């Protein structure tokens, strides 16, 4: 198994989503398996200067800062394509995903790299990921409820690129009671 582990909380050691994702990766990892780690809350730019949907800036029109953007995008796509199992942790921020996770996805969703425009519309081309696990934490919102726009967005975004099997591990209402974190840990331990 080649695991790609992505965290997105703006918190560091005290982050509950990072703690739970680490627990999950340790649970999934067997002898000989590898994992690659990326904390998207650190240092990713927002896309800018784009000429069209699908991350299009013609090669001969790229400025120096566009080249930097494409270099980061290339690296993130390489990491994304070099795994068979994806673990993404995300806290719900203001009913949606952290901006850093959206910034990551905007850099990864690229025409000709992770999806193609076809006669039938856009088609995802990421076939390497056999299973994706989403660890979603919240302070109070119920994960997958009508006011959680983080989980459905992330599921749709990954499905769009071709990821077929997605399992959501909801760790909700962590600010209401410390027991809720223990319940989430139990969920992961019993996988
Ligand atoms: C900027 C910000 C916005 C938040 N917005 C929400 C929210 O809309 N709904 C919710 O239930 N919790 C919200 N929370 C609480 C976090 O989702 C919750 O504390 C979560 O466990 C944080 O995960 P972490 O410990 O990995 O950072 C927010 C927290 C922050 C820092």
Instruction: Give the strand tally.
Output: 7
| Main sheet: strand order | 2-1-3-6-7
Total number of distinct structural domains: 1
Q: What is the terminal-to-terminal distance?
A: 16 Å
The averaged pLDDT comes out at 96
Q: Estimate the helix proportion, in percent.
A: 25-40%
Q: At CATH's second level, what is the architecture?
A: 3-Layer(aba) Sandwich
Query: Residue ranges: pLDDT <50 for 5 or more in a row?
Result: none
Element-level helix/strand string = EHEHEHEEEHEH
Globally, the shape reads globular
In CATH terms, the superfamily is Flavodoxin domain
Molecules bound to protein: flavin mononucleotide
Radius of gyration: 17 Å
Number of helices: 5
Sheet bearing the most strands, described?
A: 5 strands, parallel
CATH class: Alpha Beta
Structural class: alpha/beta
Find the CATH topology: Rossmann fold
Strand content: 15-25%
Give structural notes:
There is one protein chain. With 191 residues, the chain is an alpha/beta fold. 34% of the residues lie in helices and 21% in strands. It has 5 helices and 7 strands, in the order E-H-E-H-E-H-E-E-E-H-E-H. Strand 4 and strand 5 form a beta hairpin. Helix 1 packs parallel to helix 5. The longest helix is centred in the middle third of the chain and has 18 residues. The mean pLDDT is 96.
Supply database-style keywords.
alpha/beta, Rossmann fold, 5 helices, binds flavin mononucleotide
In short:
With 191 residues, the protein is α/β, with parallel strands linked by helices. 34% of the residues lie in helices and 21% in strands. The protein has helices at 16-28, 64-81, 99-108, 150-161, 178-189; strands spanning 2-7, 34-39, 85-91, 115-118, 121-124, 131-137, 166-171.
């Amino acid at each position: 198994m080649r695991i790609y582990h992505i965290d997105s909380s703006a918190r560091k050691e005290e982050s509950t989503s990072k703690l739970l994702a680490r627990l999950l990766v340790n649970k999934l990892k067997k002898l000989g398996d590898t994992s690659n780690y990326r904390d998207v809350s650190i240092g990713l730019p927002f896309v800018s200067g784009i000429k069209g949907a699908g991350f299009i800036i013609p090669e001969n029109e790229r400025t120096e800062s566009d080249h930097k953007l494409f270099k980061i995008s290339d690296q993130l796509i390489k990491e994304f394509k070099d795994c068979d199992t994806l673990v993404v942790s995300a806290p719900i921020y203001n009913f949606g995903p952290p901006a850093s996770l959206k910034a990551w996805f905007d850099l990864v969703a690229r025409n000709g790299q992770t999806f193609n425009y076809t006669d039938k519309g856009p088609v995802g081309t990421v076939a390497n990921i056999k299973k994706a696990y989403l660890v979603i934490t919240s302070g109070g919102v119920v994960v997958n409820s009508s006011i959680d726009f983080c989980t459905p967005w992330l599921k749709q975004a990954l499905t769009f690129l071709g990821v077929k099997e997605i399992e959501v591990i909801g760790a909700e209402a962590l600010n209401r009671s410390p027991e809720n974190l223990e319940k989430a840990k139990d969920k992961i331990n019993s996988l």
